[in-house]
Amino acid sequence: MTGLTNSPNWMHWKRYGFLLGFLPLALPIVAWNRMETTDWQIFAWSPLVVIFGLVPLVDSLMGNDLNNPEGDVVFSLGEDPWYSSLLVVVVPLQLALVFWGVGVFANGSLGLWGSLGWILSMGVVLSTVGITVGHELVHHKSRFAQACGGILLASVCNGSFKIEHVRGHHQYVATPLDASSAPMGVSVYQQIPHAIIRNFQSAWNLESERLQKLGLPFWHWRNELLGWSSLSLCMLFVITSYYGSLGALGFLSQSLVAIVLLEIVNYIEHYGLQRKQLPNGRYEPVTEAHSWNSPALLTNLLLFQLQRHSDHHLYARRSYQLLQHREKAPQLPYGYGAMVVLALLPPVWFRLMDSRVKEFNTIFN
After folding, report:
1. Is 3 a domain residue?
2. What is the rounded distance in angstroms from the CA atom of residue 311 to the CA atom of residue 226?
3. Potential cystine with 266: which of 142, 175, 180, 299 (Cβ 3.0-4.6 Å)?
4. Measured between alpha carbons, how far is 339 from 345 in angstroms, rounded to an integer?
5. How far is CA 187 from CA 178, 182, 183, 190, 349, in A?
6. Cα(263)–Cα(194) distance, rounded to whole angstroms?
7. Residue numbers of the domain that contains 75
């Protein structure tokens, strides 16, 4: 499908192609059904096989989407409520899947192997859909959309992302001040704990500064960090009340997996790309050169075009259906699914990516 034009037919097809973004939510349900009918716990791992194995394979067969909306199409896409509705619908589906998925784990019938596969699969799915859509929603102008994004992030105990990502990451991306931008030579295993801890600290500091400017104490009901954290605690309380301590363990474990996957994706999106520091101590403006992109068609539909990341950093308020493929931006060799697997293999990752970082920096600078 590489090279499709910006015809109305193509845009119409793509409009419904974003329904594929709901597909990962069905994977645990299919896996559970197969475990129930066959008693084979290996199916608990099947969502991982699909997301990190089958999707990259299909990506390679389908090709790339290099096309951008142009002219009158841009206005019609921006005004079409279909696209924002798709995102909002994810909220109840995500919450239902969280509650149901924890129940499957807490049932205690999976065994060690099945339980491990289930928690990893649930965490990956909740991150792939919930955090991806939550990320999109927190950038919207609408307070309702932002609240929906916060709920999705709170469902995986990551409400702090709503604060730090918008007010921290987007300001400091590709600089040493951003915990989610890994310098070349740093492995994903070094990056993950560093990013998780520092990003929470950053959210704490950013919210403290905001409240201070308003003349309010940190421990105030208008503290957004406390609000979203409280929502996660309420979810934990409900799940513990219903499923017991095993349910609490499942909820917290799958949330940790979801957060780890988020930081792996952050690692992929900005690895080795650095903004120049100017003589006045500030950093050069963010450009398309400071985020890695991938035009892989299927993954871009599954992730609501998250892979058009350079354009997102240039225009954070631009809705996902309007994001542009930027040819001059650094391009990943594969889609996110394959890149996550490669990032977990540091020697392979460094061999694949370091030369690209050096080559791109040489050309761009």
Report:
1. no
2. 31
3. 180
4. 10
5. 16, 8, 9, 5, 8
6. 10
7. 8-364
pTM of the model: 0.94
Instruction: Spell out where 43-134 has E strands.
Output: none
- Report the interhelical angle of 336-343 vs 346-364 (nearest 10°): 120
Residues contacting residue 231 through CB under 8 Å, at least 6 positions apart: 150, 151, 154, 159
Do the domain assignments include residue 359? yes
In a 10 Å sphere around its CB, with 0-12 CB exposed, 13-18 middle and 19+ buried, how is residue 1 labelled?
A: middle
Return the CA Rg of the chain.
Answer: 20
Instruction: Please say whether the beta carbons of 163 and 225 come within 8 A.
Output: yes
* Domain count for the chain: 1
2 occurs within a structural domain? no
Query: In 3-state terms, what secondary structure has residue 257?
Result: helix
Structure token pair of residue 326? 């930027």
Sign of the Cα torsion 193, 87, 242, 122 reads negative
d(CA 244, CA 68): 50
Whether 219 maps to a domain, the answer reads yes
End-to-end CA distance of the chain: 33
Please report the sign of the dihedral spanned by the C-alpha atoms of residue 54, residue 57, residue 58, residue 59. Answer: positive
Name all contacts of 184-189 with Cβ < 8 Å and 24+ positions apart. 184/271, 184/272, 184/353, 184/354, 184/357, 184/358, 185/350, 185/354, 187/346, 187/349, 187/350, 188/264, 188/267, 188/343, 188/344, 188/346, 188/349, 189/346
Note down pLDDT in tens along the chain; length 365 residues: 344 444 456 677 888 999 999 999 999 999 999 998 898 999 999 999 999 999 999 999 998 999 888 877 787 888 899 999 999 999 999 999 999 999 999 998 898 999 999 999 999 999 999 999 999 999 999 999 999 999 999 999 999 999 999 999 999 999 999 999 999 999 999 999 999 999 999 999 999 999 999 999 999 999 999 999 999 999 999 999 999 999 999 999 999 999 999 999 999 999 999 999 999 999 999 999 999 999 999 999 999 999 999 999 999 999 999 999 999 999 999 999 999 999 999 999 999 999 999 988 776 66
